[in-house]
Amino acid sequence: MNFNAIYALLLREAKIYFREKERIVSILISPLLFLFVMGRGMVSGTSPVPGYSYQQFIFPGILAMVILFTSITYGLYIIWDKRLDFLKEVLAAPISRTTLFIGKSLGGMLGAVIETLLLLIIGAVFILPLNPLKVALCLAVSFPVSYMITNIGLTIGAKMKSMEGFGLIMSFLTWPLFFFSGALFDISASEPYIKAISLFDPVTYSVDLLRIIMLGHGAFSVWIDLGAILVFCLATTIVGVSAFGKLQQEK
Amino acid sequence: MAAIKTEALVKKFAEVTAVDGVSLEITEGEVFGLLGPNGAGKTTLISMLATLVKPTSGTALVAGYDINRQSLEVRRQIGIVFQEPSVDDLLTGRENLYLHSMLYGIPRREINEKIDKMLALVNLSDRGGSFVKTYSGGMRRRLEIARGLIHSPKILFLDEPTLGLDPASRKAVWDHIRELKEAHNTTIILTTHYMEEADSLADRIGIIYSGKIIELDTPSALKKKVGQDLVFITGRINEEALRKLPFVKSVERENDRYKIGIVDSGKNLQALLNAGGDIAEVEVRRVTLDDVFLKFAGHQISSDAEEHAENIFERIATIKSARK
Fold first, then answer.
1. pTM of the predicted model, to two decimals?
2. Is A190's Cβ below 8 Å from some Cβ in B?
3. What's the half-sphere exposure (Cβ side, CA atoms, 13 Å) at B149?
4. Considering only CB atoms, which chain B residues are within 8 Å of A2?
5. Rounded to a whole number, what is the distance in angstroms from the first to the last CA of chain B?
């Protein structure tokens, strides 16, 4: 592992991230629609957690949604890098593929954490008052969650040849990950088949952990959530590093 | 010492053999031109030497390191300028060079000084702070060359470095390449399909066609193989008599005119015209690498085309049966 190189890769992502401000804003649009239109509009939707409104109930879920969408999109972006040859420069550099993978993952994490912070501020002002400790804990959770999801995106991106598959990934992976995570409803009170599928969804545990922090209510215990996220982090690292190891120039 | 030594390098992509058993040796400080038509295997060969593509079989030593087993060491010794621009549009020229320096492990306090030096070398000092997306094609190329050089590589790969450049930028790139060779003794491997480029820069030229090196020599020796000068004549020509002349290297008929390669036209032209028969028109010019290229690769291209036409049904049948 070459830390100088990881820092260089991270620096590049940070510079580009802050230069493309439209991207920061555009990623927040659909989560905000969910939060303010669906959250406020479903007045008849009763909150599964006593003492909180439906909008407050889905707020942790929408936070996880932002992390999910930002991280997957970032990961898939390396298809562009591949096609536009920006990736060649780093593939030819004297750094191992593990270093490259970790550098890219951390780059994606950076973006997701910034989006999380923005949404936390919006939410704390308009939806659910949060003390600084809760904000800090939610941010802390966003690190491993965005890491594992960026890994998934990067792994798929490394395997995919063209951007045409982007829409398919969004329909068949990203949205199901979101809907089965229990971001919009209480997992423990849902149909058995939804429960069964949601157990394999890494986002489920992320939503649950954020909900425990913000509302003090969750379907699992903190330790199960943390353990599951840790396992997903490790597994996606192993799979991702191996996918990057096979990455070759396609000519 | 050999900067690069390849042994029977082969790369196959599915049903296509891009590089077909290349064995060659490139000495330190040499400018080696790799010349060939599109799809001949130039880029694949370079990509294997730069450890970007794994060979199907065979191996190579680059700066003394094995490309199959010591890829990180190989990468530290080489610089590469790609055929398609790979500088980052969203960063400035300086930032591109800075990130590259960090990836190649240049100590941080030396980086800025090196960047200044490289930007001056490629005449981009005043534009270093601008975003690359505002650069012209020539400026991007020059930035790429600066990037390929900033970590002082022992061996530099230039894949079509002047593709799509205007004549002035092309000349600037050529001047940089010559300076590198003279001032730093850098070994340079250059692919191109511009004959004049290979002619004016390279110490030796390898002509690659269909994955094989079909000719390998100095530019002047290659030209001698065709003859030093080409004489084009039309009229009623006595071909037999021409072939018997000792200074005639080749006689070819192109429609109604003859293309004759001869040695030393100043001395021998008169004798040629005397022996030629009833001549209506004469044109004399020096042999260029284009002629060399057409002589060695051109024949193969036309004979390959015929062969493929005959065998195409057979090939389809084999591919289909192999899939079953």
1. 0.81
2. no
3. 28
4. 105
5. 50
Residues 6+ apart with CB under 8 A from B276: B233, B235, B237, B238, B241, B242
Task: Take residue B169 and report the two structure tokens written for it.
Answer: 């930028």
pLDDT tens for each residue of A158-213? 888 877 888 888 889 999 999 999 999 888 888 999 999 999 999 999 999 999 99
Q: Where are the domains of chain B?
A: 2-218, 228-286
Residues of A in contact with B100 (CB under 8 A): 89, 93
When CB atoms are compared, the residue of B51, B80, B102 closest to A8 is B102
Chain A hits for B82, CB-CB cut-off 8 Å, are: 85, 88
Q: Are B43 and B81 in contact (CB under 8 A)?
A: no
Distance of residue B91 Cα from the nearest chain A Cα, in angstroms? 7
B133 phi and psi, to 5 degrees?
-65, -15
Domain B228-286: which topology? Alpha-Beta Plaits (3.30.70)
The reply to whether A125 touches chain B by the CB within 8 Å rule is: no
Which two structure tokens, joined as six digits, stand for B117? 């030096």
Q: What is the CATH number of domain B2-218?
A: 3.40.50.300
Enter the ipTM.
Answer: 0.84
DSSP class of A163: G
Name the pairing type of β-strands B248-254 and B277-286: unpaired
